[in-house]
Write a structure and sequence with these properties.
- The complex is a heterodimer of chains A (447) and B (171).
- Chain A is mainly beta and 447 residues long.
- Chain A folds into 2 domains: 3-169, TolB, N-terminal domain (Rossmann fold, 3-Layer(aba) Sandwich); 178-439, TolB, C-terminal domain (Neuraminidase).
- Chain A has 4 helices and 31 strands.
- In chain A, strands 2, 3, 4, 5, 6 and 7 form a 6-stranded mixed β-sheet that branches. In chain A, strands 1-30-29-28-27 form a 5-stranded antiparallel β-sheet, with no helix packed on it.
- With 171 residues, chain B is α+β, with helices and mostly antiparallel strands.
- Chain B has 6 helices and 4 strands, in the order H-H-H-E-H-E-H-E-H-E.
- In chain B, 45% of the residues are buried.
- The chains are: A mainly beta (447), B alpha+beta (171).
- The interface between A and B is medium-sized, with 41 and 26 residues.
């Protein structure tokens, strides 16, 4: 990425984003403040140590509210591959490469150091310049700048975290992404459901749709502009597709019986879904241009939770055709299904990593349901969560982390867990229940 | 929107009145009081019920069928309840019922939508077998979305694994 060239694009993107968020904020549900609570459950000694030094502010106005370095540091900590130097241990505050005294950071056993500054432009927006150094080699790895509005600095911070992550790991970062989830608040007649969208760290929540009847199963379109979901607002389950920015939506299936588990194909032209109008829940594929459906599975079992393999050639789904729910794979045009899970007596609701080799799922044994990751090459699966009623795994687009729902006491809360299961964070995003997280695809500039 | 309170009351009535269900002459006091009003109604198709029977008859007042974990078979103790609702539906061809299928919280939400529907269909088939018309019945599955109890134990899960018989038209 060349910051000088993308400067204007970013500026425009953030203007649009700021307007969108401002509009959304006006409709936002009553959260307990705007700030999600994030607790780190456990750390890891093998993570790469990195010092993220607070960014200096250079300007005449007030410094921005967003602590850019803190946002970056939290991103890096959350993914499990990095361990940032605690604030109390930061003894010097370089803001550019020339000010770094390497012996200090060597002594503190830091592998990398990130420094930067926020420069106020005459127009009022902020140019964030940052430099990443390899401490041992005393070598500059990155020196870039991203400009954003004061209100859009969290987005800038997430993009910097993505660039740092990619430079060090060689894998594209997925911090500048969003998550969709369902909230439910109140009880009995006063229960209120909402489909929400927030930044990947839970900040900037906005309400996509609200309902007094259950909402479930949000699924992103591959361009990140739309969400498909199930709503009971018509009395029975129906599948809607809604444009996030405009709120315009359409019902794509409201047949008799179940209309559930929507999943966009990787090319965005089709929607896999579960329909039971013919008698039993089966997997169908809908052409989104014509809304014509093709039946993919047959039989009396419960076939549901279809998920596309990244190549779009096949679909993984849940079926209890063998007695208990297990995962099966079927060609995207239909045909014979192959069972792919054999460990554990309950395997359901797959989330497929971008490599197509790792599949996260809900694995049940007795009354304990945890998130497990299946290595499709070996057929082995291992748990990566520790709750008793964990549900709904969703991979980040780069496969580095997952989100899932855990039930704690009488509440459903979200957890973010590193793909290796070593670092877990609880995201308390709202009062009431928060569940069914769905991680967005990579964001596109201007979105 | 269905009130959980109603469901709990129904459950209480169900357990209290199980025995009374089969015999139409053994009515609880509440039904006794309403009996004169019911008698004033014209007899419908020569059947034993009036529209008011839905509120007064100890068997018809039972509107919840409970299931074992991950099962959709109707247990023997609910046959009498199925039979009286089928008899009512046969007597009142204009009556309409929605069978709301529900599950406990264990397992995934979409799978539970399927399981709730399977339970709804089981009650649907049993009602039809006992004389109701399929056109009077509509199955909606809510899966685990509408628990009446939110604790994480079998005592609570048992209450949530249910089909609710909801009359949308009484005659």
């Amino acid at each position: 990425m060349k910051p000088a060239m993308t400067h204007r694009i970013f500026a425009r993107a953030f203007t649009a984003l700021a307007l969108m968020l401002a509009a959304a904020a006006a409709f936002a549900q009553g959260l307990s403040g705007d700030v999600p609570t994030i607790d780190i459950k456990n750390g890891t000694a093998t993570a790469t140590p990195i010092a993220v030094i607070p960014f200096a502010f250079e300007g005449t106005g007030l410094p921005p509210d967003t602590d850019v370095a803190a946002v970056i540091g939290n991103d890096l900590d959350r993914c499990g591959q990095f361990r940032t130097l605690p604030k109390a241990d930061i003894v010097e505050y370089p803001t550019r490469g020339s000010e770094i005294k390497y012996p200090t950071w060597n002594l503190l056993k830091q592998a990398y150091i990130l420094v930067g500054r926020q420069i106020e432009n005459p127009g009022g927006d902020i140019r964030v310049e940052f430099e990443l150094y390899d401490v041992a080699k005393q070598q500059q790895l990155l020196a870039l700048a991203i400009t954003g509005q004061r209100t859009g600095l969290r987005d800038v911070a997430h993009q910097i975290a993505d660039l740092v992550y990619e430079k060090i790991t060689g894998v594209r970062g997925a911090f500048w992404t969003r998550i969709a989830y369902i909230t439910s608040t109140g009880t009995g007649n006063n229960i209120q459901y909402a489909l929400m969208v927030a930044d990947s760290d839970g900040f900037n929540p906005q309400t996509v749709v609200r309902s007094r009847e259950p909402l479930l199963s949000p699924a992103w379109s591959p361009d990140g502009r739309k969400l498909a979901y199930v709503s009971f607002e018509r009395g029975n389950s129906s599948i809607y597709i809604q444009e996030i920015a405009t709120g315009s939506r359409e019902v794509v299936s409201a047949r008799k019986g179940i209309n559930g588990a929507p999943a966009f194909s990787p090319d965005g032209t089709r929607l896999a879904l579960t329909l039971s109008f013919a008698g039993h829940p089966n997997i169908y594929s809908m052409d989104l241009a014509s809304h014509q459906i093709t039946q993919l599975t047959k039989g009396y079992a419960i076939d549901t939770e279809p998920k596309w393999m990244p190549d779009g050639q096949s679909i993984v789904f849940t079926s209890d055709r063998s007695g208990k729910p297990q995962l099966y794979q079927i060609p995207a045009t239909g045909g014979a299904a192959t069972r792919i899970t054999f460990q554990g007596n309950y395997n359901a609701n797959a989330s497929i990593a971008y490599d197509g080799k790792h599949i996260a799922m809900v694995q049940g044994n007795g009354n304990v349901y945890r998130i497990a990751v299946l290595d499709k090459t070996t057929g082995d699966s291992k748990p990566i969560s520790v709750g008793n009623l964990d549900d709904h795994p969703s991979y980040a687009p780069n496969g580095s982390m997952l989100l899932y729902t855990a039930t704690e006491g009488s509440r459903d809360v979200l957890y973010a867990v590193s793909a290796n299961g070593r670092v877990r964070q609880r995201l308390v995003l709202a009062d009431g229940d928060v569940r069914e997280p769905s991680w967005s695809p990579y964001r596109q500039r201007g979105q | 929107m269905k009130l959980p309170i109603r469901v709990i009351l129904t459950a209480v009535v169900a357990s209290a009145a199980l025995v009374a269900c089969a015999g139409k002459n053994t009515k609880p006091p509440a039904a006794e009081a309403a009996a004169p009003a019911a008698a004033a109604q014209p007899e419908n198709n020569g059947g034993k019920y009036t529209v008011e029977s839905l509120d007064t008859d100890s068997c018809l007042r039972q509107r919840v069928v409970y299931f074992d974990f991950d099962k959709s078979e109707i247990k023997p103790e609910f046959q009498a309840q199925i039979a009286c609702h089928a008899a009512y539906l046969r007597q009142f061809p204009g009556a309409r019922v929605t069978l709301e299928g529900n599950t406990d919280e264990r397992g995934t939400r979409e799978y539970n939508l399927g399981l709730g529907e399977r339970r709804g269909n089981a009650v649907d088939s049993a009602l039809v077998a006992a004389g109701a018309s399929a056109s009077q019945l509509n199955v909606v599955s809510y899966g685990e979305e509408r628990p009446v109890c939110k604790e994480h134990n079998e005592g609570c899960w048992h209450k949530n694994r249910r089909v609710e018989i909801v009359y949308t038209a009484k005659q």
